[in-house]
Amino acid sequence: MNITSYLFESYLKCPTKCFLRSAGETGYGNAYADWIQVQNEMYRKAGAKRLMEEYSQGESIIGALETNDLKTAKWRLAVDFVARTHDLESTIHAVERISSEDSGKPAQFIPIRFIFKNNLTMDDKLLLAFDALVVSEMLGSEVGLGKIIHGDDHTTLKVKISALAGDLRKRIGKIAMLLSNISPPDLVLNRHCAECEFKARCREKVNEADDLSLLSGLMAKERSRQRSKGIFTVTQLSYTFRARKKSKRPSQRVVRYYHSLKALALREKKIYIAGTPELKITGTPMYLDVEGNPDRDSYYLIGLRMPTLGSLVHRALWADDSASEERIWREFLNILAAIENPQLIHYGRYEVTFLRRMRRRYGGTAETGASVDRLIENACNVLSVVYGHIYFPTYSNGLKDIASYLGFKWSTENPSGQRSLVLRHSWELTGSITAKQELVAYNADDCAALELMVKTILRLSPENDASRMTLPQPDVVHVDSLKPQLPYKLGPVEFVSQDLEHINKCAYWDYQRDRIYIRSNPRLRRVARSRQSKKRHSLRVNIVVCPSRLWKCPNCDSRKIALKGRHRKLLYDLRFSIGGVKRWISRYAINHYKCRHCGISFPSDKYEWTRHRYGLQLLAYMIHNIIELHIPQFKLSGIIEGLFGYHLGQPTINRLKRRATELYRETYDEIKQRLLDGKLVHADETHMSLKGQRGYVWVFTSLEEVVYLWSATREGSMAGEFLSEFKGVLVSDFYAGYNSIQCAQQKCLIHLIRDLNEAVLKEPFNEEMKALVHDFTVLLKPIIETIDRFGLKTRFLRRHKRDVARFYDQLLAHEYSTELGQKAQERFRKSRERLFTFLDHDDVPWNNNNAEHAIKAIVGLRNVIEAQSNESGIRDYLMLLSICQTCKYRGLDFFDFLRSGEKHIGEYVQKKLSWSTRGSKSRRRVTSESASNVEVDSRDRRGTNRGTQYLIPNKYDVPNGTDLKNGQ
Prior knowledge:
Shape: elongated
Helix content: 40-55%
Strand content: 15-25%
Number of helices: 35
Radius of gyration: 43 Å
Oligomer: single chain
CATH class of the domain at 3-180: Alpha Beta
Structural class: alpha/beta
CATH architecture of the domain at 3-180: Alpha-Beta Complex
Number of strands: 26
CATH topology of the domain at 3-180: Lambda Exonuclease, Chain A
């Protein structure tokens, strides 16, 4: 069967349409399709007549011609030219013949097509290319040029056929394969269905098959992917939706659309809500709908539904022609200017495009001062609220589909945008009042339907829970209320009957071990009995500090004093020795006296007590496990209870961490100040999320200090503010945020080397990049050898500056032709003053490994705390981690520093050196913060266990050998 231009045009629209036309089937009719056909035919005849008038009689012919007639022809224009080959046929609107000036060359044939539309598509150009191909095969020579005459102004567009030849032949091959089959292709709905004569037939068959193409937003690629999984119908797709947990990451800017959820809404006939649809109406709602002719980029009807005196009134602004367009625009602006704080509400982007075009054509301010810029900024697109958030049980998110589901009835028959074009054209030709009234009614219905949608969305909004009850509750389902429907899952399972639930409980591990297995296993029976009899015993007190006996008043030295009561305090701590660690509990008792002479009250002993009941050694142990060993708090709670018997929950451990932060804040400030007063700072940053919000941790290090800072963003202002007083050399990577810092800078050459290496691997045959990398390697290798031999000393490195200057002279003088080479050259040029700073400063490294090493500590801690901490907790962790890493950089043990009770690392180092010079092997007793770790306990001496030591302190003093902080 020959492939005609009629079938080729059908295939460009839809393969099914092409097959049906080839089989001789006729459609049920479509008003818009008939109108398009009539318009094309009228435009073709008028265009051909106009073109023939340009030629004299005898120079133009009409009808089919043979191949020999083409070669020996004398005519200059052929109209309705039918070209045929053995498998192709085309009725060409016109062919222009241009004789060659050289007698030895054949004449040139140019096919011409008439298209009544102003805006052309690729399909129009392919149709012209098909005409040219048929003529080329008839002549046996290539036709390289064609013309399209189109639009109201009869614009002529020249098309190069060679640019379309590849795509054209592929489509012809597919058409030949399609026509050779007996069965029709897979029936798929597309955008052309609205203007196709087979619309009703295809829609009926697709509905019967429940095909995936019913979902208007499901693209061909996604349909193919679903079919490869064995999913062919909308109902099948609906069963693939799985409710997911809410992501802890920041919400994405692009809203994800779930076609499976749309299918589920259709299957269940319910409205599904995903996320939080937000319809913000802050002003007076003005429902806007505009009718226009997209092909002419003109507008003829503006519809506004607006409140007036407690009711809603529709205003229709009608333009008879293009000259009246400005008039209705001015009327539109004046109407809005009379409304207090108007807010336009529309559906889709067509109305916003209308506002912007009218502003560009006729200005954006009315006589009364209404500003279009403010209207566009405050306009509310209802479709953007529906998309991805509200899934109505409709096949598309079109206004007419959704409003019809909500119960709205249109006053016109078969309302559609295509029908409005036909009505407008009918009015332009005949001035029909009926056509105009139908267009105005159609526009008013669209505004009323939009109002109904807005009211529905407001009832579905979470801010209007009270009014949401006006909708039938079973018809609205929030996705968050759906339980995960995974084939296998942990946790409770819902059963259809209580008997099945009871049988399932009888299979639990604990139930079978405690009720079934112990009946046949004596060992398990004994374990169960011992577990039942096991009780929580009180912890034994290791030492009791008794109160001092006072004989006189400390104020007046009177001996007339009376005992007025006693209170006790328990201190829970740990005691470390050379061989291990043990639990250590101390009890302190204090008598209270009152002087009968002067009337004052005073205690028997004075301790610097606070509300803390846990000692410094236990605090140091916990901070060491959390910060240095990266043990989560809930695991550490079990470790402490299992080893020492202290029942510390996660909230208690978190409070102790906060206490440690307050205790060592002075240490952290000292580290920051020492870092800023130094001559070298390494800087880097890494991301860290907290409860779904992405943030960043900045790392600033020297050779001995490490400081971590938290920031919600990656803006360089954070680093600039911290280093505002720094006067040394900053070593960093190539992040542009560091460039604004006012100090000498050294960029990490390791980062540069890795990037250059990656560029060469990306394009292994790029000789320019290979030469650049080779030259840079030749420059850098002697410098590294000098550093390995003499260290980072300027007097040895300064001699390499001449080599650097020579390298840059050659680099900048070279003209690179490849994109990678040009980028690398520009990068070297911009970073010239920051690449070799280390040659001019002592002890400045050429890489940023110091900061990258500090990043590793963040990564280890981030995996433990990222999902559980808030911003305040992150800052506490970073403060303690800064002290930990500073101790490591200075060769100190972080745990020993915490146990020492010192607040200044420098003083701790000095005292440690003094201990080593004296050769003392005993460990220093901690005396600071002595009574800040004790609590009142109601037990007296008779309630203590055996083995408790009793000590009686001197007046106002702690007895020798007793340490209140450590319980020693």
